[in-house]
Amino acid sequence: MKVLHHDCFAGISGDIPPAALLDLGIDQNEWLAELGQLRLQGYRVEIGRASRQGIAGTQVRVTVEAEPPVQRNLREIQNLIGAGSLNQAVQDRAVAVFRR
Predict the structure, then answer these.
(1) Would you say 49 and 60 are in contact if contact means Cβ atoms under 8 Å apart?
(2) 10 Å Cβ neighbour count for 81?
(3) DSSP string covering the chain, please?
(4) CB of 61 within 8 A of CB of 68?
(5) Which end of the chain has a smaller Cβ tally under 10 Å, C or N?
(6) Per-residue pLDDT tens digits for 40-85
């Protein structure tokens, strides 16, 4: 088994984990297909390269097309994850992340 440790010494935002995973070699099309299984509407994902202060990497931008952005509580997030067609193990891990 391979283990990845992501040291978030200065915090983390929503675009950093997927960008890091894509940089590590996760297939972009496969990731987008899995994301599509959540059956969410009103967003667009753009993936590209970026460079900031001499550090280059993958950049993931998620644009929410609905105004204002939807605020969801834990129960609603769990229901969204469960309503999709993701593998049960993936659903369980995703819910565990949000619970933590």
Answers:
(1) no
(2) 19
(3) --------BTB--TTHHHHHHHHTT--HHHHHHHHHTT---SEEEEEEEEEETTEEEEEEEEEE-SSSPPP--HHHHHHHHHHS---HHHHHHHHHHHH-
(4) no
(5) N
(6) 888 899 999 999 899 899 999 998 887 766 788 999 999 999 998 9
